[in-house]
Amino acid sequence: xxxKRPINRDVxxxxxxxxxxxxxxxxxxxxxxxxxxxxxxxxxxxxxxVFIVVAIVFASGSSDKNESGGEVTTSAPGGNDNNSESPTxxxxxxxxxxxxATNNTTRIGGPDPVANAAGIALAVFPSTTPHQQPxxxxxxxxxxxxxxxxxxxxxxxxxxxxILFSAxxxxxxxxxxxxxxLGPQGGKETGGASLFAIGAVALPSDAGKVTRVDSGDPAGxxxxxxxxxxxxxxxxxxxxxxxxxxxxxxxxxxxxxxxxSGDPVLYTGAKKLSxxxxxxxxxxxxxxxxxxxxxxxxxxxxxxxxxxxxxxxDRVAGKDAVGTAIALARYHRGSFGWNxxxxxxxxxxxxxxxxxxxxxxAPLSASGTWxxxxxxxxxxxxPAAVRSYFLDVKPGYTTDPTRAFYNHVWVVGDQDAIxxxxxxxxxxxxxxxxxxxxx
Length: 439
Hints:
single chain; alpha/beta; 2 domains; 4-stranded parallel sheet; 13 helices; 14 strands; 32% helix
């Protein structure tokens, strides 16, 4: 009988690899002057075609002839006549592998949240046909990380509105191009709106019907988004998440959960509960409340204020932002929490110092390989806690790998944010492993 889940116990952790000396590290390629992420789909097609051509060339051998009689040379520069099973570094760079993708990871490699949001929106909604286009898009200010995280709830069904970023005076070119490709037309599920504008943001002249949210402070904006969510979703939420308005890194994981679940995100400071947040809690007194972050971020006295209003309050926390994201990924109570404690899931990995990037990545957690957001603090090194978590949920098989469960990780940010070496480590941790000596 095939087990319901692969047996992952007693998988030995892989040994830490020693860091190369500084003089052996290759310099990182210079950053492009402007992101090309709105052209992501065309780029992927081009990469795929190049990859196919290179694969055919390598398969043909160095002495094969082309149709016109000329030789097709596949040897590496420098006169090496030995056949190689892997492409030369020049070929690998041209194909953008492994920085673009490995067999268990895919990178959205924009230099900032604006570019990443555009690329992610087009990855989730390819928009090559009207059926693939979202009914609406949420546009948030570039500097409004709190509004962006709260607006992630609008990515949940039935609305499914991805996030793009804008500025008060003009929409960035990446966002403008992505919005034109997405072509939202509004619909019943969006209340007829083609755009949800959070804050004072520039919009195109042909934006169509726009629903605006603008209070001027994180708690007030989030409260308005929660009210909008209730109207569009046709009812109250099952749960409410409260995050810190002072420590953005501790609020980041809430974006992925909001997009996946439809649970709104509200904000509180460390000294007292915001009046705007308290007002929403009073309206939704029966909804369980989950506070995201340790006591050092949201103290007990704030929980006591919430407890006086709401039916039930629980805390989900780790010792730091990285640990808090893992805690939410593991958490399960009733219908709340990812409960990702076994293999066979998607994950999203982003930098902990880019709160807006968490909102940009939220659509990846509500589509495709649906999965929680995890955080990394350094471009070169995966946090030990994340590595341990990946090992704990590492997929394995005993006899037949085609019947196994697989993990996939989206990597958000360019190589300045998360280096290719860290991506390669994540790929190894997500790799399917044979367990035992079964045949």
